[in-house]
Amino acid sequence: MLETTLRQISLVMSRLGGGMLLAAALLVAVEVSLRMSRLVIFSVGTELSSYALAVGAAWSFAHVVFERAHVRVDVVSQRLPPLPRAFFDVLAMASLAVVGFLLTLAAWTTFATTLALDTHSNTTLATPLAVPQGLWVAGIGWFTFIAAYRTATAAAALLRRDLAEVTRIAAPPSAEDEASEAALDARSRMEAES
Questions:
Q1: Mind listing the pLDDT tens digit for each residue in 43-86?
Q2: What is the average per-residue pLDDT within 170-194?
Q3: Which residues 6+ apart lie within 8 Å of 96 measured at CB?
Q4: Where are the transmembrane segments (predicted)?
Q5: Helices then strands (H, E): number in the chain?
Q6: Which stretches within 68-129 are classed as H helix?
Q7: Which of 149, 180, 188, 193 is the most buried (most CB within 10 A)?
Q8: What is the phi/psi pair of residue 25, to 5°?
Q9: Does residue 137 have a pLDDT over 80?
């Protein structure tokens, strides 16, 4: 139940982040078209798209953890027996949580300084930078929480010697996993078309 709720929140955040990126791309396209026709001479798309990129990426990180889509070089671990492989999968997830924690600390420091100084962008919009930075910190913080949660659940599974559960939580998808997922997607599309 908890995992399903956390997964759903992460999916919604990821979709909102993607929506921000799409909106930013549309805004920049409209703005460029209007500037080419000399109807608009100012530019806000660049500023807003940079905020959308930072927030959209940060808000999608947690979903990537649930989907096990983060990049890992696992040449060595794939050749190990199941128990050591599971240990390294948990270690890799823990490393992701540590990196997230360090990113969250740095992002929070930036946000707190911006908030204390009431900093605004030096642009036409004069955006209070605490707004995009607060959204950015929220995304990175959520990612860190999810990575720590997944580390704890994978470590608990490892202690129970439930290696299949460790693989489900922390291991990168195998070629067979990806092939079966692609087959399911193709089957779903074919059923939808018929």
A1: 788 889 999 999 999 999 999 999 988 777 677 777 889 899 99
A2: 77
A3: 65, 70, 147, 151
A4: 12-36, 48-66, 87-115, 135-159
A5: 6, 0
A6: 82-117
A7: 149
A8: -65, -40
A9: yes
Q: What is the pTM of this model?
A: 0.85
Q: Which residues of 70-99 are buried (b: 16+ CB within 10 A; e: fewer)?
A: eebebeebeeeeeeebbbbbbbbbbebbee
| pLDDT, position 1 | 87
Per 3-state DSSP, the chain is made up of helix, strand and coil in percentages (nearest 5) of 80, 0, 20
Structural contact between residues 173 and 71, judged by C-beta atoms closer than 8 angstroms? no
Domain segments of the chain: what residues? Answer: 2-193
Distance between CA atoms of residues 60 and 138, nearest Å: 11
Amino acid occupying residue 112: A
Reduced to 3 states (helix: H, G, I; strand: E, B; else coil), residue 173 is coil
Please state, in angstroms and rounded to a whole number, the distance separating the CA atoms of residues 166 and 157. Answer: 6
